[in-house]
Amino acid sequence: MLINKERLMERLNTLAEYGKNVHGGMDRPFGSEADINARKWLIYLWGKQLNFKVKIDAIGNLWAGLAGTENLPALVLGSHHDTVANGGKYDGALGVILATEVLNIIKENNYKLRHPLKLVSFTAEEPNMFNLSTLGSRVASGKLIKDDIKGAKGDYGITLGEALKKVGGSIENLQDAKISKEDMSAFIECHIEQGRRLFDKNLSLAVVPKVTGIYREKVKIIGEPNHAGTTVMSCRHDALIAASQLCLEFEKIIKDIHRDDVVGTVGHIEVKPNSINIIPGEVDTILEFRTPDFNDVEIIYANINNAISFIENKRGVKIISETMLKQREVIMDKAIISTLKRAMTKMDETNIELVSMAGHDAVHMSSLTKTAMLFVASVNGKSHCADEFTEEMDIIKAANVLLETILILDKELD
Ligand SMILES: [Zn+2]
CA distances (Å), 341 to each of 208, 239, 360, 372, 388, in order? Predict the structure, then answer.
């Protein structure tokens, strides 16, 4: 049994028609017309063309499934079909279309699985107008409940409840979207790597052992606003110069860990009063770093605090820092990882492990069931942009590895 390449690529291209923009990128955020039309197409494909059992849950997650011959919890494949603004056609969509093909080929061959096999496309994985990313998987795993999100409002005052209604969900019955641990025996998300590690090694696929931890520190630097002309250089307490020094120190702290899977970014900065002839009096910024190893975190924090004290003394400013996010790394399931590797070996594929440096729905599913991820190479490491591209050859390999993994898990898992 091997997957059908033409059909798979055609569906990937069809899904990419929903939300395609004039720059060659994709605009398909949650709640948009493109999202709604893509959903309609997926439901039609699964329900009418392929005769899968289809369900839309209360948070709008789209489910399709095949029955199993035994009364066992389901094997589940999936990802998301929404995109960032001017994103690419592979991020999320690839995992949904690959899952569709795996179910399709199993049904077409009349192959009887012991487990039910399901596929899911999660709602609103990407940032969206409600400021709630990985929304579908967080609700499904019980990490978000109705009271947490019922007040969320998006563009033009639309409520989350109204947006959910449009896609067949229901904020009132949100608790029904929660999956119980007994309902699933495994979850696998296939996703593009979104970085260039596979591409640089000239490899197609990788298994993900961990999803990185993410840490965000909100930093306020208080200096002294004053006249830009009449204040001599030695009398200044410039908050922006202090912040700039902190940015450079932060870069050095992260680089000093000397690993590719430890990264730091200062992506947000606000300067007050932000005026051409006033020395900046205050700066608000956020230092973000990611590492898959919790041992690094203490070292990085200690070094940030040292840098803060040094800059405070040197520049006569006050620096207040507050932790916004401390999300530890998530470890994927060893048994599913080894099954993915066996499937790769069977297909003569080199198997390597790569930490995921981005968050995914799989993170939340891992609190419910044995979870793992399969990465497919991104050409030139591009993602979240119109140039996002993955080779057809690599997509086909991923599909066959997923299929083989499901066949093995069906035999071996209970
Ligand atoms: Zn994604």
Answer: 11, 52, 20, 11, 26
Ligand 1 center–CA 105 separation, angstroms: 24
Single-letter code of the amino acid located at 31: G
In the numeric block, which tokens belong to residue 349?
A: 């594929």
**What DSSP state is assigned to residue 402?**
H
**Under 8 Å between Cβ of 120 and 62:** yes
For 138-169, the DSSP string reads HHHTTSS-HHHHTT-B-GGG-BHHHHHHHTT-
Instruction: Render pLDDT for 6-58 as a digit per residue (tens, 0 to 9).
Output: 999 999 999 999 999 999 999 999 999 999 999 999 999 999 999 999 999 99
What is the Å distance from ligand 1's center to 191 Cα?
Answer: 7
Q: What is the mean pLDDT of the chain?
A: 97
Separation of alpha carbons 413 and 186, rounded Å: 9
- The residue assigned the tokens 């056609």 is 89
- Name the residue among 4, 94, 398 with its Cα closest to residue 406: 398
Strand partners, 282: 222, 272
The closest alpha carbon to 62, from 42, 92, 32, 90, belongs to 42
Cis check for the bond before 273: say yes or no (omega within 30 of 0).
yes
Q: How far, in Å, is the centroid of ligand 1 from the Cα of 181?
A: 24
Tell me, in angstroms, the distance from the centre of ligand 1 to residue 378's CA. Answer: 12
Q: Single out the residue of 293, 211, 288, 214 nearest to residue 257, CA to CA.
A: 293
Q: Please say whether the beta carbons of 403 and 3 come within 8 A.
A: yes
Q: How far is the CA of 250 from the centre of ligand 1 (A)?
A: 28
Q: What percent of the chain has pLDDT over 70?
A: 100
pLDDT on residue 1: 86
Mean pLDDT of 356-374: 96
Which helix (H) or strand (E) covers residue 410, if one does? helix 392-412
